[in-house]
Amino acid sequence: MRLTVNGTTRIYEGDPTQPLLWYLRDELGLTGTKFGCGISACGACTVHMEGAPIQSCVTPMAAVADKHITTIEGLSANGDHPVQRAWAEANVPQCGYCQSGQMMAAAALLQKTPRPTVADIDTAMSAVLCRCGTYTRIRAAILAASAGGR
Amino acid sequence: MTTSSDLERREFLRRLAVTGLVLTVDATGVRRLEAIPAFLAAGEPFQPSVHLSIGEDGRVTVVCHRSEMGQGIRTGLCMVVADELEADWSSVHVEQAIGDPKYGSQNTDGSSSIRTGEYARLRQAGAAARQMLEGAAAAEWGVPETEVAAKSGTVVHAATKRSLPFGKLVARARTLPVPATPRLKDASQFRFIGKEMAGLDLHDILTGRAIFGQDAKLPGMKVAVIVHPPVYGSSVATVDSAAALQVKGVERVITLATTPIPSGFQPLGGVT
């Protein structure tokens, strides 16, 4: 099967049931995407498939055949995606472990809903947990990215 | 002793590092110097204590001897040292310590990293280094030490408007004794302590480059997965590993000792 990861076409001939997360981390070395729970409960492993957020820990390789996958490493060339800029401005991360998933979820939200309401943000972002508790800064950063993108 | 091949290697790495630097400068202006191997800048470092070193390029490396868990200690410890040092914040880099008794306690809990002793100790470490750099500059200029003062990565002689960056003072500062009771700043002079600073790891986190425990790879490393009993505090009666051993790549199934309750501050059973 073929798939595209961060703009590069890849051939995959391994186990079709392997979760995408481990292909990204172990085979491509893209360790920016994190393992948190393995059961689609925490969102640390969120990446984009055709621009929509998916949880890579429960997405088998068979489901990404011929798809375009984007990880945090491919969100922007220089860390200057509007979400990354807003995250820097608001000094969002603490330990940072969940933040790749947070930013991927936020970028997908803004792609689909360029001017989200606070309720939109809370609904979209509830899939990604942060044990440090950076939620209020995440919300502020998304609102800033939303306003700044106009 | 430095051999010619060492020099060639260094020069090669230096060029490589410069190339890496150019590639990683980003549009937000966030500085990206981590690509340079630490030993290059630290070829002849000025290292007045285990807590910091200053390279001849002026790069300040602060050692974080406590664990980062989202509390910001990697940045916090640097702020304390850099403030007393009068460092230029953009030249400050953090290096994670290994476990070593030379750092004293490395236990990280209960806000103790700053609160119980380390705040004072790190202020002294920064101040001692600053005082030695000031001493080096005074000697360089042949003026009394009381007439010079460090300011944001340089030492200044106001009377003659002369200044030297820290990097140029490293060689001489290295030869001076480390003051036992360095002069500390008055709190009103703090530039970083008590201020909100962007985390030193911010850019790496935002680009997925930050390395966490799970991202570390060692030669020959194997991966273990723990299956817990379904009830907290229960112990394993029997284990049937037949199905697990059929999975491709599985080498062994090991049964761990039960963790005594309460488990919060105990090592995991069988895992050390």
Structural features, described:
The complex is a heterodimer of chains A (150) and B (272). Chain A is an alpha+beta fold and 150 residues long. In chain A, 35% of the residues lie in helices and 13% in strands. Chain A has two domains: 73 residues, Roll (Ubiquitin-like (UB roll)), CATH 3.10.20.30; 67 residues, [2Fe-2S]-binding domain (DNA polymerase, domain 1, Orthogonal Bundle). Chain A has a five-stranded mixed β-sheet, with helices on one face. The radius of gyration of chain A is 15 Å and the shape is globular. Chain B has two domains: 170 residues, Aldehyde oxidase/xanthine dehydrogenase, molybdopterin binding domain (Aldehyde Oxidoreductase, domain 4); 51 residues, no CATH class. In chain B, α3 links the parallel β3 and β4. Chain B is elongated and about 80 Å long. The two termini of chain B are 40 Å apart. The longest helix of chain B is centred in the middle third of the chain and has 24 residues. Chain B is α+β, with helices and mostly antiparallel strands. At the A-B interface, α2 and α3 of A face α7 of B.
Alpha-carbon distance between the two ends of chain A = 39 Å
* Strand residue percentage of chain A: 5-15%
Helical residue percent band of chain B: 25-40%
Largest beta sheet of chain A, briefly? 5 strands, mixed
Q: Tally the beta strands of chain B.
A: 7
- CATH-level-2 architecture of the largest domain in chain B: 2-Layer Sandwich
Strand order of the largest sheet of chain A: 2-1-5-3-4
Number of helices of chain B: 8
The helix-strand sequence of chain B is HHEEEHEHHEEEHHH
Please identify the oligomeric state: heterodimer
What is the topology, as strand order, of the major beta sheet of chain B?
A: 1-2-3-4
What's the Cα radius of gyration of chain B? Answer: 24 Å
**Estimated structural class of chain A:** alpha+beta
CATH class of the largest domain in chain A: Alpha Beta
CATH superfamily assignment of the largest domain in chain B? Answer: Aldehyde oxidase/xanthine dehydrogenase, molybdopterin binding domain
Q: What is the helix content of chain A?
A: 25-40%
Rg from Cα of chain A: 15 Å
What is the name of the CATH topology of the largest domain in chain A? Ubiquitin-like (UB roll)
The largest inter-chain interface, given as chain pair and residues per side, is: A-B, 28 and 26 residues
